[in-house]
Write a structure and sequence with these properties.
It is a single chain. The chain is α/β, with parallel strands linked by helices and 804 residues long. It folds into 4 domains: 2-203; 220-367, Rossmann fold (3-Layer(aba) Sandwich); 395-592, Rossmann fold (3-Layer(aba) Sandwich), CATH 3.40.50.2000; 601-779, Glycogen Phosphorylase B (Rossmann fold, 3-Layer(aba) Sandwich), CATH 3.40.50. Helices cover 38% and strands 17% of the residues. It has 28 helices and 26 strands. An 8-stranded mixed beta sheet has the order 15-16-14-13-17-18-19-20, sandwiched between helices. The longest helix has 21 residues, at 758-778. The two termini are 48 Å apart.
Amino acid sequence: MRIAIVAPSGVPFLVGGAEKLWWGLLHALNQHTPHHAELIKLPSPEQGFWELMTSYRSFSRLDLAHFDLVISTKYPAWMVAHPNHYCYLQHKLRGLYDTYQLTGLPTVLGEIPAPLQPLVHAMNTSRRDRTELEPFFELLFGLRDDPSLSPDSFAFPGPLTRRIVHFLDHIALAPTAIRRYLAISRNVAGREDYFPPGAQVTVVHHPSDLPHFETGGYNYLFTASRLDHPKRLDLLVRAFRQVRGEIEFRIAGTGPQAQALQVLAAKDPRIRFLGHISDQELTRLYANALFVPFVPYDEDYGLVTIEAMQSGKAVLTTTDAGGVNEFVEHGVTGLCVAPEVPALAAAMQHMLADRSETMRMGGRAQQRVSGLDWPSTVAQILGEPQGHGAVSTGRRRLVVAVDFPVYPPRGGGQSRIFHLYRALARRVEVTLITLCDDASIAGALDLAPGLREIRVAKSPAHLEMSQALNRKLAASVGDIASLLHYGLTPAYLEHLARATICCDLVIASHPYLYPAIAEVYVGPLWYEAHNVEYDMKRAILAASAEAAFYLERVREAEASLCARAERIMVCSQPDAHRLQALYGCVRSQAILVPNGVDARAVRFVTRAERRSNQCDLGLDRHLSVLFVGSGHRPNIEALGYLKRIAHDCPEADFLTVGSVSGYTAIESQANNLYPLGILDDAELTVVTEAVDLAVNPITTGSGTNLKMLQYAAAGIPILTTEFGNRGLELRPGEHLWQAPISDFPAAIRRLRERLKSERKDEQIEATVRRARELVENRYDWQMIADGIDTSARGNAREIAFLED
């Protein structure tokens, strides 16, 4: 398909969010689709009303019949006529629409002079038909030099010029002229008079056109903006002048307010104006900022927000910033305060004082926009709308039932679900219907383009049954409680039933909500087996008649689900064999969907960089050894081994991360074992980029260990048991080191000596590089998702190894 992106070229030419959208969209269409696209621009000065009208008429006369599709995003380019015209709306002429009321000018025409009456009559009797345009322009331009009209008849802005622009936009954007309506944000989609009444508008958030993002230090405050009144840089300058500390505030950009802002900041040498900067400089400045303040008034979208968050930086904004607040969640991905100098100053001071929390918010911000990319954006823009105002692209629709909240991903199960289905959402629409204990976090979350989580709070009765079962079995078994008592939360069944009415496929992620699925759905069903759940629960529950009753309920649910499922997504070959042995699964059911890692989001850190990071963190005196794990029984057992290993290796520091850290008080604790607790992504990155060695002393469990891939992606040397490496293609001697638990102390000492030797250190570097390369080639989530055919029948990745 030949696609024209048609746009105005500002006079004088400036680069802003609109230009970045056009460039990014053009590149994505040409590089990520089979289509051919061209950006067509016409000079469009708008310093005065007549210049603007000339541009409107020029676009209305533009012939693009040699293209199969036209995409416009902004006035007056949408005046172009084409039978297949998509409008991906950025904004209308705001001074004549949503900000017009701020001028205090009237919206109703007063007494109309005789020469203007035919013009007004033409607008009043319009049928919103394009055939009216040329006669209207002839009539309008015939009045341009009419000596009988007063000079302010066509005042700009003014009620008449406002009415004319609205009239032209109504014709250009009429349902007969536009085949598909889209908007860059919910804020734009909701503005009055932006779309025809009843129009179905698809919201598609788009990424920046910057080629890549980096996360570096936290050295200064930084923002990038056009230095213009609506961006309210004066608020930030005034607020920052009240902030205590030596940190700099760097401001990039040019614009009409540049001189006034420099005068305002003249007495504070910490404020630096950088002027125009290159994309390379912009990327670096984002990378090393502590946080990014961005406080425009009612912003359409705010690419600064996206760029900051993709760089792992928290954003400080205001409650009236418009589209910015579709991404900035107060206290989670940044701070959102009143648009007042004292409030902004206090927020800045807080973010400076608690740098750790600011960094954590930056990590969550990066996760929030991690699925925002051009391929999925283009897929949504080119899709066909369905439903009533929902974002829909005509793609297959998947519903996934999960008995715990998925976002933000912390444990292995959450991480697998979030990353796998985010990657799948590039091709299909995915809705996760999840359960949570805390009603305050319930609701609908747009996790990524095409990926939504509908989180339902368990009812008080459901929670009470769950807590009682935890006490009875002396274990965390909320999932078993959901298996038996999901009916106590009727809202979950309602959401599940609603989501599955028109879906193409339902996936049970774990077997615990299969009875709920069976109650409301009869279509194609898959089972995502994170492990063999019966074996997992048998390892967790103490041997007793009472535990045996609940264990049997788990076996029955998993057996029923395996019997019903058309496909079973297994993490490893051993799990496939075990499910076959337990439930008689046939070969054609099983497809291999291994655990993975988002390799693009994990930076490989060299040995030299690690040594530098260790000096910064005070980890350079001893060998630093990392173990990451949740409070799962296999990890708790591994922690017991690790305590004994730590006793035998006093020359090393052992760091534990994750909820397993809470079990360090069990038995005696080695003096060199340090529980770090649950860390967010930013904090965990600090640790993984500094440690010498990662260990995996796992001896029981099911599935595969996701932590192994995370270690390998980060470039950490790995020492594991054979069982801890089960189901993965990481080979001893080539990608990692492997030993029985009893040999771990000696193996750690040998690795410590090798790290001291420059020659052998280079060998270790080569080993971890091979591990990283394997992860990129075999275990990247996007590659894994691309190998899954979600059609109900047939799959290229059936597991042939079920045959002995």
